[in-house]
Amino acid sequence: MPSGAAPTGARTPINPFLANDPHAKAKRLARALVSDLVTYFPHKRQDGLRDGTLKQLFKDEIQKSYEEYVTQVGREFAETTPHFQEALNDLLAGGQKVF
After folding, report:
1. Helix, strand or coil for residue 66?
2. Which residues contact 47 (CB under 8 A, 6 or more apart)?
3. Nearest to 77 by CA among 2, 5, 27, 31
4. Strands annotated E in 18-85
5. Residues 1-25: pLDDT tens digits?
6. Dihedral, CA of residue 34, residue 35, residue 37 and residue 43, to nearest 10
7. What is the CA radius of gyration of the chain?
8. Model pTM?
9. Rounded Cα distance, 25 and 19, in Å
């Protein structure tokens, strides 16, 4: 083994985004799904923030995004972690605790 090389079985991912940490993956997925809502519906988001109606305005879109999230991370993991809710509050609600 070359000097400085990690022993077999102790490989460290070169890129931290490739890590097998399920929480990191779930956070990225949740943020990506919610970011899409922000990107595709900017006026709707502005109206919801202004009027305090984000939950009502985005009900269908949030449900659809959450279903995709559950499909990819599993129902038990989705229901026992705050990642999707945190993404909604951070990104869609602009840091407010709405969801």
Report:
1. helix
2. 53, 57
3. 27
4. none
5. 444 444 455 555 555 555 689 999 9
6. 130
7. 18
8. 0.80
9. 8
Residues 84/52, Cβ–Cβ less than 8 Å: no
89 pLDDT more than 90:
yes
CA dihedral (69, 16, 19, 93) in degrees, to 10, reads -20
Three-class secondary structure of residue 99 per DSSP: coil
Lookup: tokens for 56: 């009502």
Q: Are 88 and 62 in contact (CB under 8 A)?
A: yes
d(CA 31, CA 26): 8
**pLDDT value for 88:** 98
Q: Extract the tokens encoding 14.
A: 């070169």
Q: Report d(CA 58, CA 97) in Å as an integer.
A: 15
Query: Residue 4: left (phi > 0), alpha (psi -120 to 50), or beta?
Result: left
